Fold:
Amino acid sequence: MLLALTVAASGAAQEAGWRCGVAKTRITPRELLWMGGFASRTRPAEGTLDDLWVKALALEAPDGGVGVLITTDLLGTPKWLYENLCARLQAKHGLGRAQLLIAASHTHSGPALRDTLPDVYPLDARQREQIAEYSRDVEEAIVATVDAALAQWRPARLFAGETRLPLAVNRRANRERDIARGAKPQGPSDHAVPVLAVRAPDDRVLAVVFGYAAHTSMLLSNVWSADYVGFARRKIEAEHAGAEAFFFEGCSSDQSAAPRGTLALCKAAGERMGAAVLAVMAQPMRPLAPKFQRAHTFIPLAFGQQPTKADLRRWGAPRSYEARWAERLEKELKDGKVWPTGYPEYPVEVWKLGGEQLWIALGGEVCVDYALMFKAKYGANTWIAGYSNDVMAYIPSRRIWEEGGYQAGAFDVYGLPALRWTPDIETLITGAVARLEAQVR
Structure:
């Protein structure tokens, strides 16, 4: 009898596998709000090209590992939204921070959110109220989408794969007009396209997760759109009826999808990406055993230099967002406000799927150097997501910190009272990743 019970238990354990839940909610604004991204815009949205979505993929392994990937067609996740979501999903479902990975697509054709890029948009009182109302709706939509995903568990199998697509170019090292004329791109880029396929026991595709390191800013018009990502997702979903495609932005603060600027170019790029993902799925992929480890931490990042009154008085052209940032900070100094001397909670997260697939998620607009460093250290198939959980500023490598320029901080874009990070920013972030990787190893 004992032998029979032991054999039965062993067979049940072998049969146990992944479970998944999938849900989505449309978040296309009902009103023509001000849009996120592109400081050169002078007016709100003027229509819709394609819908914006929040999607949730819940994964559970029999070792007790549960995690939820949340993807949004937003420029980024502000700190207040990240904190609210973590608190509500902890209270409602017992999910800790390490069990949530919130990945923004960074589309520049989505809506602005409350308390995000505060000086970039020339908003009046009515526009601010519209954005605040929409921001509340987005929070509710995300919570409801996670609720729905966690309410429909089903058996699943997971598979990993990668391909490459030469779409991204380094926007610090190249001029777009030269790329459009056929010039050979210069500078570092990451052309990897990681793919996670979630299949039912009968092999039907339930969900597809893919990523890429290139700015989601191919469209320059004033219409709601998920940009090239939307075209890629629709191509994948058309091939696999009933499946949902999820996208995460890679380390792309210094990467553009080029050439760009027209709907035709954007559609062609998205369909090329969708075809690349489908090609990976058509070939044998690496099966991921039902094992799931996760780790999360916050690290403080210090400001290496903060503006003086003299700096602020000569900062930016009149009526520019830079001037609005300087005027606001100068008033804060005059009023005696004490500025923070750094960003106290920079989020770093690591997931490991199947005991082998490492997935690193970093907050902020992260440059491509981090992806290349982590792949060199942890393996070429490592997945790295930027724009994850909290998007607070540009995050440079030591190389870009030394070179300076826009991607070294862009603090006036994000409204922070700083001019530079400290030079050890790369060391702090890579050290945190190393500690988390050791925890899930």
Remarks:
- The mean pLDDT is 95.
- Residues 17-293+346-410 form one domain.
